[in-house]
Structure formats: structure tokens, C-alpha cells
């Protein structure tokens, strides 16, 4: 899967934060859908978009952005305000100078999983340089 290293780094960062210990962080599996009742707070991390542009014809120099999505699931019994509070903690834990954008969805009810769901998309800057062999 593309952006594996970036997704793993973010997953490890979030798992290490003491203030987020009440949330289980997992790596999302694309193309797998399993409807189940959520019994604890879960945040699923998955790669989002990747946008690179070449800045040189002679070399493979690219600059751009990549995004990582986090879907937060909070059981109904915790209440919707907890979803907002937990997402704020996640945002604060990820804040860095590489972030160039954060987009948060509104909270929605996921009836089949009996939980509230909120999505965050974190956009990071990226520079990739590889000298061409031509």
C-alpha cells in the first residue's frame, strides 16, 4: 500500500500519546468492509491522496502533498461530545510544521455500527529527490 511508512509513523505517534490512551488506533484495511457494533473508541488510519509535481526535467525532483485520513468511531453510550473532544486531542497530537492542511468532517451517526463517526484528513508537505540516471 502506498504511504505505508507515513501511515505507520503517524500510527506509532498516536499510540505513544498518553492523552489518547482511551482510543484504539488501527491501520485501516482498504477494500474490506465489516459491519459490526463498536464497543470501544477506535480510530482507523488510512492513506489518502498523494499529489506530486516535477520541478525539473533533468532530475526527478518532486514536491507536493500527501494526505492521511483518520476515521474516529465512538460508541453511542460515550455521547457525541466525546467524539469532538477525542478528535481535538488527535489533532493536537499530530500538529507539526509539515502539516499544510487539516480538514474535519461533521459528526454523523453510523447506525449499523451503533456509533458516532468523525473523519479528519491531514495534509502534509513532501519533497522527493532522486537523481536521474539519464
How would you portray this structure in words?
With 134 residues, the chain is of the alpha+beta class. It has one domain (4-130): Phage tail protein-like (STM4215-like, 2-Layer Sandwich). It is built from two helices and six strands, in the order αβββαβββ. Strands 1, 2, 3, 4, 5 and 6 form a six-stranded mixed beta sheet that branches. Strand 5 (108-110) and strand 6 (115-130) form a beta hairpin. It is elongated. The mean pLDDT is 86.
Q: Can you identify the CATH class?
A: Alpha Beta
Q: Return the CATH architecture.
A: 2-Layer Sandwich
Structural domain tally: 1
Total DSSP E strands:
6
Structural class: alpha+beta
H/E element sequence: HEEEHEEE
Mean pLDDT: 86
- CATH homology superfamily: Phage tail protein-like
| Proportion of helical residues | 10-25%
Overall body shape: elongated
Write down the CATH topology: STM4215-like
Backbone CA Rg: 17 Å
Number of helices: 2
Strand-residue proportion = 35-45%
Any low-confidence stretches, pLDDT <50, length ≥5?
none
Largest sheet: 6 strands, mixed
- Termini separation comes to 28 Å
